[in-house]
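Pipeline run #58 for the internal structure catalog. This entry was flagged by the ingest filter as a single-chain record with no existing model, so it goes straight to prediction. Upstream metadata was stripped on purpose; only the residue string is passed forward. Reviewer on rotation: M.T. Logging verbosity set to normal.
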Amino acid sequence: MIRTTVVLGIAALIGACGGPSGEGDRPQLRVGFTRHLTMAAVFITHAQGYFEEQGLDVELVPLHATATSIPALARGQLDVLPGPMSPSLFNAIHRGAPIRIVSDKGSFTKDGCSHNAFIVSPEVARAEGKIALKRASWGREPFMQFAAERAVEYLGYDLDEIDLTFVPNAARYDAVVSGRLDGGLIGEPRLTHFRRQGGAVWAETNEVLPGHQISVYAFGPRLLEEDPELGRRVSIALLKGVRQYNRGKTPENLRILAEALDWDLALLQDVCWPPMRDDGLINAESIREFQEWALERGDLDAVLPAERYWAPSFAEHARSVLDAGR
């Protein structure tokens, strides 16, 4: 069972008094999460006791959004922030926040399944010739906007000719299916529901952005600067969880994720599980492309080189320890 602290908002988390206290001799750490399939390795690491194996007492802290949780990470109210690529993360680092990306948490792979796709309405799908894409929507999360724009451009459309409207995830799915929108970017589990109903998937994001980094783990000052040995232990536990996750839809993985996400087993069997790297390394080249896109939009202070935002020694240490134990 996942033990969590109920947080009504990120302000409540940031306003918490003092740091975490240990239970016995085990240091207590706070790891943020949202109830999403991309957090699967975190849930598995926690449920399988991999944190405890490293002598850690980890509390999973539910968050409303990862990008708005960056101040909590920088101030030490969170120790680990798993989440998608975000201009806010790079801006915080550029402005001197003691946080760094430490390892991969998900990427697109050309040969794998796609857990995000640009879908079109039944009316648009039936049209002959080039799809008349006039009204479309994707969410406010920057990386998904980046992925959707690349999908539109990949298929030869001019973004200036499309009326882009923000619609929340659940409503976006319904708007496309009903024809109120011509298209939109959706992810799992709605993507699987759409496929089951015979919906038209227009562009798979893993084909549009093969190899692109989607999501990462970031450490705050405690694990980076105050006690990097503690950070190395956290990295070992997380990478072990990733490798267990990469064993696929085993009965144990299905059980853990069905409980953590409150999904039924049949749905978990059908959805695409986001690929994660066994070595924990990130794709810095693709991150630079994302940063350049964000800078052009005015969302980023500056494009940072990898050495400014990435601390690879944690993933490298975890990989060497786990490989030696095989």
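catalog note: Residues 3-23 have pLDDT under 50 and may be disordered.
catalog note: The two ends are 28 Å apart (CA to CA).
status: ready for reviewer M.T.
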